[in-house]
Amino acid sequence: FIRNNPKNVIRVKKSWRKPVGIDSAIRRSSRGTLKKPKIGYGTSKNLKHKNKTGKTSVLITSLNEINNIKYYNPSLQLILSKKLSLRKRRLYYKKYK
């Protein structure tokens, strides 16, 4: 959802703001205007925070976290943080692949 008139007015950024003007066509939801955010556009609870594969992804910042997460919930998809060194990544791949 983009803000009303961000193309014509340079100082206006695209991030959504609720239209409040008395003559605003978007506020009145006239036909042919921009869509406003509504609760119906939301994602269902069973699909929220999931990948296309249907798994929830978790960011791993230390190798100690992997043991806890694998033990409690093996259906999670693990993503190694960029902060992990190459040596630690290789250690992970040897241990878990």
Q: Can you offer a commentary on this structure?
A:
By secondary structure, the protein is α+β, with helices and mostly antiparallel strands. It contains 2 helices and 2 strands, in the order E-H-E-H. Strands 1-2 form a two-stranded parallel sheet.
Helix content: 10-25%
The amount of beta strand, in percent, is: 5-15%
| Mean pLDDT metric | 85
β-strand number: 2
Question: What's the helix and strand layout?
Answer:
Blueprint: E1 57-60, H1 63-72, E2 77-80, H2 86-96
Parallel strand pairs: 1-2
Brief overview, please?
With 97 residues, the chain is α+β, with helices and mostly antiparallel strands.
Question: What features would you highlight for this structure?
Answer:
97 residues; two-stranded parallel ribbon
